[in-house]
Amino acid sequence: MTSPTKLEKAVEQLQKNPYYEKYADRIATLQKTSPREFLQRLEDQQKTKQKEKEKKLGAIDTRQFSSVLHPKETLSKDLIVEDKKLEAILKLDLVTEKDASDIQNIWEEYHKNKEVISATIPLDVYTTVHEKMKDYPTFLFPLPRSEGYEFILCQCHGHTVHFTPLLAFQVHKENAPECLTMIHYTELGHKGIVLMRGEYDKNVLNGQEAQCLANQFQMYFCGKDLTKQHLLETFNKKPDAFKHMDLVTELENISLV
Q: Average pLDDT for residues 86-98, to the nearest whole number?
């Protein structure tokens, strides 16, 4: 049996529809002759609307909000954070007799099927990078997202580079969690190379996005492009004159030439 109360509520909902007056007579007839069918049609319509709503929400890239909702634990102000050691990943005594090329192959093979990014950097190149890391310890990178660009804050400390979504940093400051941490291991500098390994939060980034940030870091901190050099200096020395959209322009104008 279809209760009168249920029918009344259904009609109240329909009356909120701007096209109700146009179809009022047909609705009234169906309501009287077949109240069960009338309610079934309304339920089907509501289910369809709910599915459409869920589909729209599902299309939104919510990963960028993950770090805002999950801050990391507060660290003691007196805590000294040291760079991680290569020995924790690679047994150095096993590569003592290896040359740089062999070590690069071992490093690449080791990380090939892992959800991390990695690289082998010539020592002279990393020396330049590290000097810029000290001169320009903070910077910003645009990351392409489905809804446009998300800005990722980059902070250099020692031989480590911490990447944090700007929105998360604005909310949680020093307690904002990193979405990518790149560590440069210098223990094999005497062989002319520095090994890099980057671990990323899979709730915020995928491998391609992590590599995109690493590539942008390399272009700004390793390259000799005068425009990028100017942006680094402006962001760190004259922040009031810095324009975020200049970074987007640089990214969109990347040339392989």
A: 90
Q: How far apart are CA 154 and CA 166, in angstroms?
A: 9
**Cα angle 35, 37, 38; round to 5:** 60
Give the distance between the most distant pair of CA atoms in the chain.
Answer: 91
User: Is 69 domain-assigned?
Assistant: no
- What type of residue is 28? A
Paired tokens of 83 = 């760079």
Summarize pLDDT for 29-55 with one digit per residue, the tens. 766 777 777 677 777 777 776 666 555
Domain that holds residue 127: 84-253
Whether 93 and 130 map to the same domain: the answer is yes
| C-alpha to C-alpha distance for 51 and 57, rounded to whole angstroms | 10
Tokens of 11: 């009609």
Amino acid at 222: C
- Asked if residue 145 and residue 93 are part of one domain, the reply reads yes
Alpha-carbon Rg of the chain, whole angstroms?
28
227 plus 103 within the same structural domain = yes
Amino acid 187 reads E
Spacing of C-alpha 46 from chain mean position: 35
Q: Using one digit for the tens of pLDDT, what is the confidence trace for 128-160?
A: 999 999 999 999 999 998 878 999 999 999 999
The whole model's pTM is what?
Answer: 0.69
